[in-house]
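Example complex used in Figure S2.
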Amino acid sequence: MSDAGASLSRRVFIAAALLGGSGVIYGPQIQRAISDILGGGTSGLASYLPGGDRFRIYTVTSGYPDILYSNYSLRVSGMVENPMLLNLDSISRLPQQEVVADFQCVTGWRVPKVVWRGVSLKDLLTLARPKSSVKGLEFLSFDGTYTESLDISQAETQGVLVATHMFDKPLSRPHGGPVRLYVPQMYGYKSIKWLSEIRAVEVTTPGYWEQAGYPVDGYSPDANIKIS
Amino acid sequence: MKSEYETGGIVLAPRFDRSERYVHWSTALFFLVLLGTGVLLFVGPLAAVVGHRYLIATVHLYSGLAVLIPFVVAYFISDRSTRLRSHVTHLSIWKKEDTQWLRSLPRFAGSVAGPFNAGQKLNANVNLAGLSLMLITGLIMASYLPLAVPQREGATLVHDLVGYVLTLLFIGHLVVALSHPKALNQMIAKEIKNTKSSLPET
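Predicted assembly (430 residues):
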């Protein structure tokens, strides 16, 4: 370093640009590498490391809706031949399906190989028998604010679940328990939490985040879906 | 570790002028809002208690857009003779003494060339570069298009990492400021009191 002095700010800014540029471009690879080093399924404080696999818990109202698991019921309503009110027990007696996929949030975090279990939405629709004019489904949350929608062909796609379990445990409240929707082909915001009602309609209303500008068809390009 | 502005309890001139104090405290205000809302967005259990994600994210975004404005505006509307300009110049140049000062750590025995020591220089530059990175990566995270999810994933990684760095620097800055009340007072008080002498200000 010369006596006249070197430009510190230039060096710091070049370093920052290199860090930022390579981070943005190679972020996914770096993230996977960190995830492998941490051994996957990080929990507790380690999950707060940048790049740690961690669900970022989002709620758009104050806190979580207070639903007693014992009082829970899911309403299937709207233009269906057979409206239903299902409690956890009756949901658990329906055929169960397991889906393993990467959970990708549109804001840019990802949790690899999450194991979900629940009832296939397609099976539920077979029981509810939507009328022929039905074009889509609207989903409502117990939080009273969040909504989502799927058109009927998306709703009948293999792997779309009315989910009750994550990683073989009953779905916890932060993750949308007792029951949430899970759409493996799409970004996380489509998988509405604290599901209270599924309504069959002719014309769907865009959901909560869609009204703030997110696409209604929020397909995630590489979700690595495995259905069993 | 006394600067040329502070010798033997006699403070000759206020170290920071009015526009510098405005820049400092308005930036500090935006920074605190960013830190507070950022923590609420980042830490799951807190997000759970507070919720209202859309509102908090919006406040976070606009504070982020605002945080560098006081400095940038004050810098570009000020002319070359102002203390702000001269301080920025001092802060952006690394001298031989700065390397010696860093080597002397943790004894703080190195000499200081100009109004700022090497630690203050590093802090200022890393903060400015870091805030710029936060702004760019934050904009990538906030925009749905044209950038795809892999870039947003990368931006999240960088935003988290730099967020940690800036938070640590902020805590360090706070500790040092609170343990140097005289220096802190120069950023708070309009008039600097002569503590021992009744010499007029020069």
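The helical segments of chain A are 8-37, 88-92, 121-128, 152-155, 208-211. Chain A has a mean pLDDT of 87.
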